[in-house]
Amino acid sequence: MKKISSNASVLKDSTVENDTIIAAAKTDSVSENKNLLKAENSEENSDFDNFYKKLSEAFDREDITALNQFIHPKYGIYFVDRPGAIDAVDTAKNIKAFYRRVYLSKHRLKGMYCKLTENKIPATVCDKQYTGCMAEKASNYHRISELKTALLKYGFKENYRPKDDAQLPQFEKLIKRNIANFDKAVGISFLYVDGKWYIGVIDMAKYSCSA
After folding, report:
1. Which of 1, 17, 82, 117 has its CA 20 to 30 A from that of 107?
2. Is residue 122 within 8 Å of 130, Cβ to Cβ?
3. How many CB atoms lie within 10 A of CB 150?
4. Does pLDDT of 198 surpass 80?
């Protein structure tokens, strides 16, 4: 009986030891995954910051060649403007077309660079004084499709100008980051395609509090 008791004790100790090892391994694995995720996020943020700085510098120089490199050749850019009391949506495949169609766009896009504060961008900005810049990871971006629905529903068909937007659902899925420059009243949403950032939407209406 003593031998059985001794064996049971050894078995119990072995089980406890194994459980401890497994628990430690799980903890190490979770910790390692968190560190990897943190590193990936840090790398992505650093990558985006560098991209955004170069983009802002190109806007400052009005460097057409450089700016066109920031536009995806397949998706182009959407832009939202407010030429009157109602928002309008259009698309362009190059920056010259955008500059031609949006009044004072060159002026408003100069001086866009500022320190990006990571925070959820408020949906409504005209009820409070916001300054500086905010950046957020985009999820479920639907601004263009929502504007399309509203403009067509309420009889403002002429304010939704894209001729062919069959790719819009896929386009919106690729929007991965939003920034808002409250001093310039401009928002830009960015596509992330094949490991590269591109301008997706230039929104000159959402953060403008003028009627």
Report:
1. 117
2. yes
3. 14
4. yes
Q: Rounded CA gap, 188 and 108, in Å?
A: 12
Residue 207 CA neighbour count, 13 Å, CB half: 24
Residue 95 corresponds to which amino acid? I
Check residue 42 and give its pLDDT. Answer: 46
Tell me: domain 46-203, CATH 2.60.40, correct?
A: no
Tens digits of per-residue pLDDT, 95-108?
999 999 888 788 99
Whether pTM exceeds 0.70: yes
Structure tokens at 54: 């170069």
Nearest CA-CA partner of 195 in 169, 174, 171: 174
Strands (E), 26-152: 77-81, 88-92, 116-118, 133-137
